[in-house]
Design goal:
The structure is a single chain. By secondary structure, this protein is mostly helical. The chain folds into 2 domains: 139 residues, no CATH class; 36 residues. It has 11 helices and 2 strands. It has a two-stranded parallel sheet. Helix 2 packs antiparallel against helix 5 and helix 4 packs across helix 5. The model has no long low-confidence stretch (mean pLDDT 90).
């Protein structure tokens, strides 16, 4: 029965790849798109977090100097009411979304953020560019060309986090490209796994595994 399996979606873990190869020798391995996109988002957030720590340090220095001189600290406030530290903290969620899904307040915050930090905008465009490659219904050969252009943009950006991502993609290149054959994803399995984890969290752990599995089957089957 295992020999008849034609395709398997998986993450980029080496152990999972080895298990899949031994258990399903005839199956084509497909790296799930959401694992790749997650790495791109984390690379973007890494740049935002670095700037946030710099803003926190700068604000702390400003407060210390004002306290020493017994003056009121002059903290910069942008037109949307955010300080620099708040701007970088509250921009976290808008960077996960495409521009079309931003709310009006997120659009305003993004405009301020990108004007103050052009490197974050460049990193956002890289992350969004990879997302758009996946969203297009294209053949594998076209995806190869688009990824090659994306690699060039990453090299020109000089971002270390995206360079690491690019090397990771290249190490799993053929399995990542296999996605564009059938556009298979294990999103449903990942969603169900999240539901199970949330259910287990509500129970504060599991003592009786058999009863736990029985409840899962009754709730989610």
């Amino acid at each position: 029965m295992r020999i008849r399996v034609k395709e398997i979606t998986l993450d980029m873990a080496g152990s999972m790849k080895l298990i899949t190869k031994k258990c399903f020798p005839n199956a084509v391995q497909v790296v799930d798109r959401f694992h790749v996109q997650k790495l791109a988002t984390e690379a973007l957030q890494d740049i935002r977090i670095r700037h946030r720590w710099e803003a926190i340090e700068k604000e702390n220095t400003l407060l210390a100097e004002a306290k020493e001189r017994k003056l009121k600290p002059e903290i910069e406030i942008f037109e949307n009411g955010d300080t620099r530290k708040q701007l970088l903290a509250r921009s976290r969620y808008l960077l996960y979304k495409t521009r079309e899904k931003w709310t009006s307040s997120q659009k305003q915050r993004a405009e301020i953020l990108f004007s103050q930090y052009p490197d974050i905008e460049k990193a956002y465009n890289l992350s969004d560019g990879l997302r758009k490659i996946y969203n297009q219904n294209i053949q594998k050969s076209v995806a190869m060309l688009k990824l090659a252009r994306w690699f060039k943009e990453v090299e020109e950006s000089g971002f270390k986090s995206f360079s690491v991502l690019m090397k990771t993609i290249m190490n799993h290149y053929s399995d990542i490209l296999n996605y564009f054959d059938q556009r298979s994803t294990n999103a449903s399995a990942e969603s169900f796994n999240a539901k199970i984890k949330n259910f287990r969290l509500q129970l504060r752990g599991v003592r009786d595994k058999s009863f736990f599995l029985f409840r899962l089957s009754k709730l989610f089957a």
